[in-house]
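Illustration 12: RNA helicase.
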Amino acid sequence: MPSPPPPPQPSPPELPISEHEDEIMAAVEANPVVVVIGETGSGKSTQLSQILHRRGYTRRGAIAVTQPRRVAAVSVSRRVAQELSVPLGDEVGYAIRFEDRTSEKTCIKYLTDGVLLRESLSDPELKQYSVIILDEAHERSLNTDILLGLMKRLIKDRASDLKVLITSATLDGLKVSKFFSGCPVLNIPGTLFPVEKFYSTEHPTNYIESSLRTAIDIHVKESPGDVLIFMTGKDDIDKMVSKLEERIQNLEEGSCMDALVLPLHGSLPPEQQVRVFAPAPPNCRRFIVATNVAETSLTVDGVVFVIDCGYVKQRQYNPSSGMYSLDVVQISRVQADQRAGRAGRTRPGKCYRLYPISIYQKEFLEATIPEIQRSSLAGSVLYLKSLDLPDINILKFDFLDPPSRESLEDALRQLYLIDAIDENGQITDVGRIMAELPLEPSLSRTLIEANELGCLSQALTVAAVLSAEITFRSTRSKDMEGKRKRQELPDGSGWGDHIQLLQIFESWDRTGYDPRWCSDHELQVRGMKFSKDVRNQLSQIIQKIAKGSTDVQAKKERKSDPDYRKLRRALCVGYGNQLAERMLHHNGYHTVGYRAQLVQVHPFSVLEGDEYGKLPVYVVYHELINTTRPFMRNVSAVDQSWVKPILKKLERLDMNKLSGGSSGSKDPEPLEDKQVSSPKKAMDVKQSDVDSKIQAARERYLARKGKK
Ligand code: CDP
Ligand code: MG
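Figure caption equivalent — predicted structure in token form:
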């Protein structure tokens, strides 16, 4: 139980939340669930937890504040620690996946919604908390939506000693209140100043260029005040920052005040994130170039001008094809208004919308589609199944906005193919272990299989590198696009990308984790170090939950398994739902499963063909992504014999049984007849009828090889 901290200092009084302290507290005392709606920057994230702490709510448990974004959990907890003058990690701490900065002392804990979900697996009643604040609920992240459903159950069990607060900048309060059987909704009036909006007459063909022009215009013509520029992603931000710096330098000396250009996005190193919250130097205009993280999660003070390109980068999952796409899409009207609002926090501001008003009115959606309706749900469904709630039928779980039936069925199929649930939809022992690992289902399944096969150490490395989301592609040299510098980096020995990731990490390991080796190979030192750290953590977790697992030396494994057979076999089991078969007479693939898609190996892949240029018959892939066309990303070769059991399972798959929870007959609604297309007969690799096309391809390949 956390011990009370030293007497807290009062928080800055000027924030709207602080002015409504008594009203909020009265509602919280009288109700198990309260919804608090207040403008971005009104103090919900930083002040509510402190108010509850001052009022004694941390005496019998800690306060959890969830954040959908990692960067927000870190930055808000840092701020609160500062306000309370305590070191971060003592009374105030944060926990995000693979990084825990809390201690026994911690009584105000900021954590991502995913981390809270995982905590609830080992402690379903979340007893260590007296208050749970689901912050930023308007973001409608997948995990927050699941937590909403969970809280609804939890407050029944812990009616006497748990308070739940749901906070939001824009959420439809009535809808949430209805969901929680009419809980009170407190609206905290904002102190926004008017923001004048300017529209472009047409859609820009190049939003970076028109953002640049607008930024320079503001800098030259407008009075002091910082400029917040919304871009869609890190690449655009980097481009924008360097171009803007260049143009500012080219301005005539003394024609305007000094300028400072700062990026702001989720993958920024912590030192750089902090810079945005530090006060601006005197007589200097700051340009903050941000993703939509600055829309509602993070408030940067001093912004008077906003430039809004009208786009956001959004990942969407299509359950019928199993494919992801990362699209730059138009924002919603709610988002546009949030962006504009950032300009009016300290005084009247201006917002430059780089799109015509007609687009805003007629083309933008009213609100953003919740993530639960555009994500793969395999991980979430596995989580819900592992809760063992007696009356839980996944297709009927109480969601604020339910996902489509198709998407839930897709999740069930995936989980069945990787043995997390059995044919009756019941969670298996393997599934239980998987749910506890902080990894996506395919990687956790791979680890469990690798443990059985005796190649856990290698699999841990692969899972860690993939989860650390390191970009191997250097940002410096553009000519590196294409294969990852294969002359110098290990090449996966032709087996594919997972093997290459393993080899890269092992090469670094052999240098004693020398940072110079990373820079010599144009690999980010920070990312590599992070993957090493993630690997250690995963190793500890799996040894704790899966008895009998040992993370033995990878070197020994390699000697006894020159073709990485064990590891590739483990991958085949783990990615049983992400398998593709090469098409006859062709190097293209079709995905194996209930709906075959035509896909190609991503050009960045190091997977190689045989001596005749033929790619392997079966491969597993980490991800299907639809960019210019459907590609498999991170691909490795697997053996035909390993695939057979998966094909068998596909034949047996019966959606009615799978979806029924304990038994198929319980589900009263008849499922539409979704005939599982039986997987194509595995083709014979050793086909002797070499037709002329293959012959020609072979000759071309040999000719190319000869030239090298
Ligand atoms: O959550 P909400 O948007 O309502 O506001 P908040 O995040 O609690 O921010 C309240 C104030 O704290 C704002 O004026 C922020 O600028 C400031 N803040 C900060 O300076 N540094 C942070 N890391 C977070 C908030
Ligand atoms: Mg907030």
